[in-house]
Each structure stands twice: as C-alpha cells, then as structure tokens.
C-alpha cells in the first residue's frame, strides 16, 4: 500500500467552496470526468449535516493491455460519500474506485475546512489517498497470458468452425456435381478464387461468427453451382 | 451563474438531473448553508431523477460493484471503511 498526501489553499470562503463542489464538473481541466450523479442524499442532525453519495464517471486513456485484461472499457466509475458539517465547518469527501477494484484500489479522502490563518476568506484543502495494488506483476503477466491463450483458442475455434462449415458445403456439392466440374468454366474458377480469398480472410479475421461466415460463403457456392447447372 | 451542469452517466437521465441540480444548488446556498433548512427539499425532482438513475445502474451493470462498495464503506459511516476491512 502507498500513501499519497497533498494540501493547498483556496482564496475563497469555505461556504463558497462547498457550494462550488457540487458544480465542480464539468470543467476545462478535468475533462476525463464525463458524468456526476447523486445516488443518495440525506439531511441529518437537525439540518446541520448533509450526506451525499455520488457516482463519478470517468473516461480516460487506459493503456490498451490493461483494458484488454479488465474487460475492454475505458469508462470507469468512482463512488464518493461526502459530508458537509455546518457545526465543524468541514466538507469531507471519501471515495473509492468501483472499476478495476480487483486489481487496484484507491481510497481517497478530501477535506475542506476554513483556513486556520484566515478562516473567513480562505479554505484549506487536504487530500490523502491510500493506493493498494492487489496484483503482483507476475500475477498480471499470468493473467495476460491466460487471457491471450484463451482468446487465441476461442478465435481459433471460431475460425475452424467457420471454415469447416464451408468445407462441408463444398464436399457435399462436390460429390453431387463431380461430373459437372469440367464444365463449370471460368465463372466458377473465379468463384473458387473468391472462396480462397474468403477462407484466408476467415483464418485471419477470427472474430466473425460461424453462422455469418457460413451464410456468406453459402451464397457464393449456391451462385457458383447454379451457374454450373445451366 | 450560467454554469454548465454535468451530465448523467445515463444520457436519458441528464435532463432530470439538471432539473434536480438546479433546485438543489439553490436550496444549498440559500437555505442549507444559512442554517435555514431542516428538510431536504427538491423531492419531486429527486424522485424523478433517482428513478431514472436506479434503473440505469442495473441496466449498465454498475449495481453489483456499487453494492459491494456500499457494504465496505457505508453511507451511514460517511463513506469511511468498515473496521473489519482494515
């Protein structure tokens, strides 16, 4: 676990800072925050404490290999619970990431309070973050390898199934039409060339589903053999 | 103030959120901060907005992770981690 600490001053009264906190986003600097939602909000202690739960939605450039590992979205969410306390004049925000939390956990605490040296006009900002990475580097590597192998396997299966469905159609028609083969002429040769190209395409473009490939090639065959018949 | 309001994570809730935010921000500055309110106002806008949000939390699959976080760092504790975790 790593600890991060930071503090700074704002040249505005505490009340104003807390009001601005609800309007913090969007702003020109933090463009990665794309949405802020309030999930729960309660007024307690005779109207002196306001507790809010918010969902902060972030979109940022995550390294591609991380995205692959965690499921492929660059949108992530943070949950924040904040308390405005009029008695102690503090605004405390506690937040934690909801996304990627099995790999990395960031607990952040932010506190705004009237500045001790100038409580009326200035606000003190204090920030602390507890960062815990759960995955050792070898674990990440294993995960990446596992993922890659699985993905490769899945894609390979798709490619094989797709090609097999095509081969089935070919051999079926081939048996039936063997005696026509010689008469098929140039048009079929062209279609076969098409098929070869498609088959190669299929071996490479592994994302295509077998049914898609099947229907796509089935039409080519149908067309080819229709031409052969006439 | 002419401030641009932030969007909702669910586009269909953004308009409802804006209506709620407008009401809330007014209440916050004019009543809460001045210690004039013992009631969380804007309930009409709030109900419409959170109904939309709750449905989309489920739809977008955010709910499970949220529930887990809620258990770990309850609202009632001001979002502080439960003692058994540390």
TrEMBL record, chain A:
InterPro entries per record: PRELI/MSF1_dom, Slowmo/Ups
Top-level taxon in the UniProt lineage: Eukaryota
Gene Ontology annotations for the cellular component aspect, listed alphabetically: mitochondrial intermembrane space
All residue ranges annotated as the PRELI/MSF1 domain in the record: 1-175
Pfam families: PRELI
PANTHER family per record: MSF1/PX19 RELATED
Descriptive protein name: PRELI/MSF1 domain-containing protein
UniProtKB/TrEMBL annotation, chain B:
Pfam family, one: UPF0203
Homology family: Belongs to the TRIAP1/MDM35 family.
Keyword Disulfide bond set for record: yes
Protein's GO biological process: intermembrane phospholipid transfer; mitochondrial respiratory chain complex assembly; phospholipid translocation
InterPro entries assigned to the protein according to its UniProt record, in alphabetical order: MDM35_apoptosis
Entry keyword Disulfide bond: yes
CC terms in the record's Gene Ontology section: cytosol; mitochondrial intermembrane space; nucleus
Regions crossing the membrane: none
Organism domain of life: Eukaryota
Gene behind this protein: TDEL0B06800
Keywords: Disulfide bond
Molecular function per GO: phosphatidic acid transfer activity
UniProt protein name: Mitochondrial distribution and morphology protein 35
PROSITE patterns in UniProt: CHCH
Coiled-coil regions listed in the entry: none
């Amino acid at each position: 676990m790593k600890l991060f600490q930071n503090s700074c001053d704002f040249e505005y009264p505490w009340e104003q800072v807390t009001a601005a906190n609800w309007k913090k986003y969007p702003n020109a600097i933090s463009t990665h925050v794309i949405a802020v939602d309030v999930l729960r909000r309660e007024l307690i202690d005779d109207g002196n404490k306001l507790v809010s739960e918010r969902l902060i939605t972030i979109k940022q450039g995550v390294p591609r290999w991380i995205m692959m590992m965690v499921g492929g979205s660059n949108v992530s969410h943070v949950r924040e619970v904040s308390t405005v306390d009029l008695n102690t004049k503090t605004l405390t925000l506690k937040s934690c990431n909801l996304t990627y939390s099995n790999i990395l956990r960031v607990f952040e605490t932010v506190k705004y309070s009237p500045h001790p040296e100038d409580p009326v006009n200035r606000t003190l900002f204090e920030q602390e973050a507890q960062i815990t990475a759960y995955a050792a580097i070898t674990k990440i590597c294993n995960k990446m390898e596992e993922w890659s192998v699985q993905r490769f396997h899945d894609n390979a299966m798709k490619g094989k199934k797709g090609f097999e469905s095509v081969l089935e159609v070919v051999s079926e028609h081939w048996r039936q039409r063997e005696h026509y083969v010689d008469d098929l002429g140039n048009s079929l040769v062209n279609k076969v060339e098409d098929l070869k190209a498609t088959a190669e395409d299929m071996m490479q473009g592994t994302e295509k589903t077998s049914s898609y490939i099947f229907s796509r090639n089935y039409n080519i065959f149908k067309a080819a053999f229709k031409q052969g018949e006439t | 103030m002419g401030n641009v309001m932030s969007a909702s994570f669910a586009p269909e809730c953004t308009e409802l959120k804006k209506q709620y935010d407008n009401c809330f921000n007014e209440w916050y500055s004019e009543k809460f901060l001045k210690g004039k309110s013992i009631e969380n106002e804007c309930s009409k806008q709030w109900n419409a907005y959170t109904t939309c949000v709750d449905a989309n939390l489920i739809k977008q699959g955010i709910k499970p992770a949220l529930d887990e976080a809620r258990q770990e760092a309850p609202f009632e504790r001001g979002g502080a981690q439960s003692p058994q975790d540390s």
